[in-house]
Structure formats: structure tokens, C-alpha cells
Amino acid sequence: MREIHVSVYIPAPVALVFAAISDHENFFSGPGISCRLSRVGALERNGLGAIREVQVRGLLFVEQITAFRPPHGFEYRVLRMSGARGRRKPFVHERGWLEFVSENDGTRIEWHSRFSIPLPLIGRLLEPHYARKASHLFEKLLHATRERLLAGRAATMSIARP
Known about the structure:
By secondary structure, this protein is an alpha+beta fold. The protein is built from 3 helices and 7 strands. It is globular, with a radius of gyration of 17 Å.
């Protein structure tokens, strides 16, 4: 199993950061990436039991939220990965989880994911490549969220000034 770990600090309160990142459809948005919920969660739209379909540059990840603990974290599992033509790809996802930790006046997000590519001989050669690409994407998404939250705070501050 290959494990990915990305850590990013966002200078905003934990509850605000959790709300932004657990809003799957808005979090996974941008050039080459989108998300839609195919099933809402049991108690909360994006919560436990929700199934999200994340499209990333020709790949479709169908993921289920397996634990949801606002504002401290949530877990998910990739149920399947398929290519542009709907063909299933060899991919085993043990679990992914995000932890939201209060740090100074902000939030540290710790994102982990464990997976393997069960292909004889080449699977272990492909895993580092997929891990680098996924880590880069996770970090990019978290930085984009940080920028959106900071822009929103700046706009709120300028409106509040006389």
C-alpha cells in the first residue's frame, strides 16, 4: 500500500475550513476537475454515506464518505476508478482521511490516502507516479481553498470598514 500525506495551513477557523472542504462539489472545482453528489449523506448532504463522483482529467473516481465528524475530520473510500470510456481501472483504495487541527489562529489540514495498483510487475512502478500526481492535486485544491477563504475574509473586512 502506498500512502500519500499532504499538510497545509489555512489562517481561518477550523469550522470554516471544514465547511469549505467538506462541500465536495465546490471543493472539487476548477480547470480539469469537477464533482457531483450521486447520493447525499444520511444526516448531512456531504456527510456519512454520501457518494461523490470526482472527475479529474479523464478519470472518474466514485467515492463514499465513510466517517464524518464536523469540524474535526472525515474519511472516504474510492469505490472504483474508471477512464474516459467508463472502463474500470485497476485501483485498490484502503481509505482516505482528512484531519482538521486548530493551530495558532488557523487550521492545519492533514490529508492522507492509502492505495495500491494491483497489476503484476508494473503496479508497484506506477504507484509512485500516481502518488506524486495525487499529492500535487491535493495540495493544489487545499491552496485554492485557502485563497478563496482569504479573499472572502478580505471582502468581509472591507465591507465592515466605515
